[in-house]
Amino acid sequence: MKQTSLPLASLSSWSHFNQVRLLGASVEPHIVAPDGTDKGGGLLATADHGPGASLLAVPLELLLSKERVEHYAKEDKSFKELIEAVPSLFQTPRAAVLLFLAWQMTINNPEAAHHGLGLQNPFADYLKFLPKKILLPTFYTSEERDLLVGTSLFDALDQKSTSLEREFNNLKEATETIPWIQRVWWDDESGCLDMEDWKLADAIYRSRALDLPRGTGIGMVPVVDMANHASDDRFNARFEVDEIHEHVLLVVRDNKSIQQGEEITIMYGVGGACEMIFSYGFIDEHATSAREVFLNLTIPSDDPLRRAKIRFAQEAPGVRLYVDDQNEVKWESTFVWWACVNQEDGLDFRVEQLVTGDTELKAVWNDQDLPANALHSTLLNHRLYDLFLLRAIVTIQQRVEEQGMRMAESQDGFEALVPDNVLIRTSVHETIGKLRSLEMDLLSRAYETLEIQVT
């Protein structure tokens, strides 16, 4: 839908009227990197700051979280009717904020202004300062998605796209019988909400949500989310919540100082290269390792317990490969153990009738009840644990080899495609190329490590 936009130069006025204090800092529409490239908007120090100095103070009531959305619904009858129509979608903090963002987009849509919907609020105005196009993988072209074949992001993006479509369809199905929502969002002529808007709301939240300390929870913090990323020891500021729980603060790191004219940066996260692209659209320029890779695992189709295992385990069906602090490749998976034990080992399932008349699936190990989260601990104490461990390692090694082969087979096709900035954008091509290189290196190291463990 069409959106009203405001220049970042006007954000200082918004901050003033909403009691956001910029303490020797400013929001700049253009931050120039050391190599001379334009990084876009960001925060700049307007004075010298020592360790622990406050740079920014945002009232906690401006934290856009599920609790804030619930509070807003008490004041806006139309929005309350909307969220009451989709109770299942409103359960998680993320989905609650996405509904709110979609609602604010509608308020900001000049073509929907005549409907007189929504109450003016700080968030609707703040949304006008945020970008309307975000280069996250959910906005990749089909040609750009094909470049991901062989990477862990390929499957993750497929699952994410399916999830977003399911959410959007559920939203439409639950609200299209409400006359005014049908008219504003879904009407063939006057409706303004589409899948691209839902993807944009998800991208805004995913790239800007912060996990705040002191039990505050997850949410978007205006102005703080303008800070750009720097990695490891290079970032110079951190966010926290003050002791009286009134403000979200941006302060200088204890071991850093910031000079006037220097950019103020935070670290977005410590995830791997795939996670950085997935949530933020880029890989850190100083990254020398993928850090971690998540590969899906399956249970063989000829396993007679396959369906029961998948239903009962309720575990992420995959394995996480990661590089630890000693630069050694390790793996972790709870699901792999379900793939490695069978009836002849002592595993079985039974269906029990409950007093309510419902049925419940139960797992048993050598005729003893087995809780879903206790399989690995049970195997640890078994006399044949080394055998089970060998099966797990071989299963993971085969999956690593399969992933490596997929990437190797698709590499020639990747290198043959030249960016045209229409179907394949240069920045996306470079980002995916770096991801492929980093993940192939980690897969190779993982295979060698697993080979040693097998031996």
Give the helix level as a range of percent. 40-55%
Number of E strands: 16
Shape, per Cα inertia axes = globular
CATH superfamily grouping of the largest domain = set domain protein methyltransferase, domain 1
CATH architecture of the largest domain: Alpha-Beta Complex
* Contiguous uncertain segments of 5+ residues: none
Rg over alpha carbons = 25 Å
Query: What is the makeup of the main sheet?
Result: 4 strands, antiparallel
CATH fold field value of the largest domain: set domain protein methyltransferase, domain 1
Separation, N- and C-terminal Cα atoms: 59 Å
CATH class of the largest domain: Alpha Beta
Please give the order of strands in the largest beta sheet. Answer: 1-4-9-8
